[in-house]
Write a structure and sequence with these properties.
176 residues; 5-stranded antiparallel beta sheet
Length: 176
């Protein structure tokens, strides 16, 4: 390949690194083309899986300011460039790797922080962003209901106490 082609490939990979919220590197040795196609579908809409050349990808990652992946560029490498929810894509990778043991998750980077293969698997165990947000909203709503009940309880307790005091005073001989 000529130098301009390599420079263009590096520039394209650098753009992918910069525009992605997460990148996961895998080893795909032993997977067929059909299995790779299935893997690409399992990642979801917000991720793009590409078989990459180690040297060019390492240069592009370094130019994008990501040096934590340098030791993972060996053997046949595939990269999942994730632009959306990283949890969804991590789940897709984890589930595909369970069914196809030839796919090995090497590691990755999430918002500039290096992730090991174990951390990516933990990320896959998280619930999706939408589920976590709905749980948070439910917790807020529950706390507001508790606060409303508390604020409503104070005046009603005062009214009941005042009424009990009035009845007691009437029984003792007349209140005015």
């Amino acid at each position: 390949m000529a130098r301009p082609d390599k420079a263009a490939a590096v520039a394209e990979l650098k753009d992918k690194f910069q525009s992605s919220s997460a990148v996961v590197l895998t080893e795909y040795r032993g997977l067929t083309v059909a299995q790779l196609k299935t893997l690409r579908r399992s990642l979801g809409e917000n991720a793009q899986y590409a078989v990459v050349k180690n040297t060019l990808t390492k240069i592009a990652a370094n130019e994008a300011g990501i040096t934590s992946l340098d030791d993972q560029f060996n053997g046949p490498t595939g990269a999942a460039f994730i632009t959306g929810d990283p949890v969804e894509s991590a789940k897709g990778l984890r589930d595909f790797a369970k069914d196809n043991p030839n796919l090995i998750i090497k590691g990755g980077v999430l918002d500039g922080k290096a992730l090991s293969a174990d951390e990516i698997k933990k990320l896959a165990d998280l619930e999706s962003r939408e589920v976590l947000l709905s749980k948070l909203a439910g917790a807020f709503k529950g706390k507001q209901s508790q606060a409303a009940s508390l604020f409503q309880a104070l005046p009603s307790k005062f009214v009941r106490t005042a009424e009990a005091l009035r009845v007691k005073l009437e029984e003792q001989g007349g209140a005015e």
